[in-house]
Here is the input.
Amino acid sequence: AQVIVVFHDISELKRLEKIRQDFVANVSHELRTPLTSIKGYSETLLSESDLSPETLATFLNVILRNTNHMVKMVDDLLQLARLETRQTPVKPLPVHAGKALLNAWKECEPLAQDKKISLENLLPKEGILVSADFDQLVQVFRNLLENGIKYSPPNKTLTVSCQAIEQTVTFSVRDEGPGIPKQHQQRIFERFYRIEKHRGSDSESTGLGLAICRHIIRNFGGKIWVDSPNMDGTPGTTFSFTLPKASPEAEEENSK
Ligand code: ADP
Here is the structure.
């Protein structure tokens, strides 16, 4: 029996080593693309002395966009690392989900206005309390809303609703976008996974948003999943996640 245990440990070590190697390879690859672009444009700026002001501005904008992309990727990676090693304390507190949603929407609004995408907020007016962390719940809503805006065509609506059954609340963020084919639905929660046709379509995309959402939700004992087409059969995507309900008494305890 001892031999089997030792063998099992080695294969587990090998599996972890493979995950680590894949991760390093992925990060290097993802950072290399913007770096190559920054290098190329900087070299051109240095070697060409007679660029028009318009061309100069265009090149500098490319450099800035790629730099911003790298900053976002490094920030997301750091957050993912903190979530994975649980360095970010996860002390669940009673949180007003409606307030978290409104904060998230405020952050997405400029993007939404550009595409004339509106929010239909179906969360109960009297409020709903869940057991989580306010900032992290804002981030989950923000990532899901941002995706809904990014991948939908203009003039569409995002619908956020929730359903409480016993001690669990299920939230849903629904869009009228292109949908996610079945074969990608499990994989989009993996780090860096992006559907091919969405790759490089915008500099904000890192392929880390849903991996972060999954970590956050799991840390609070919930789960997250995707349905596409939507449950009612309409084209689009619905992301749903669960969180434990918090009682008003717990909130009073907390505010004492
Ligand atoms: P990012 O959006 O930064 O690429 P995410 O982890 O948030 O990374 O999403 C992973 C991939 O899942 C996206 O690249 C996209 O291909 C797909 N995806 C996510 N949300 C949607 C959506 N609402 N509609 C269609 N595709 C989506």
Summary: The longest helix spans residues 2-47. The CA atoms of residues 138 and 163 lie 18 Å apart. The two ends are 54 Å apart (CA to CA). Helices lie at 2-47, 53-84, 97-114, 134-151, 209-219, 248-255.
